Amino acid sequence: MSKNKDVLKFFQAYIKEMIEIGGNNLPRAISVKSGSKLGKFYKDRGSSLEMEVILKQFYAGLNGKPTIKKLDDHTYDVSVKYSKKFCPIGGIYNPSRGSVFQENICIPYTRGFLSEIFPQMTTESKFLNCIPLNNQRTCHYILKVEEIKK
Fold it and tell me: CATH for 3-147?
């Protein structure tokens, strides 16, 4: 097994242990904060402020091939294809782990990332396909964005 997969397995076991010890809020809070830090880095570097471009860069950084389709002013269809049936966050097929990683890592991390770049927006994600849940090579979800009413 490669060193990278060993690191990822450790990360996945660490997240699972954090949830067992500290409950769901601990990894969610860390994920939001980490995503926010990455978003700040993107903003400081002067990256594009277009949702499709930002999301493509975000998932390309995880070695995925993203396809982002704007369905309307508030909805994006996000599909990320990986070379193997392995999610860099959630790992291999393991249905007991899929939704745990979605709810505690994937969604909060993405939310923190996008909230930092687009502070005037809130996000909501609905997964249609998840590698650990469906044993395929694609992560697929619908992203809804709404402007925050002041």
Answer: 3.30.1380.20
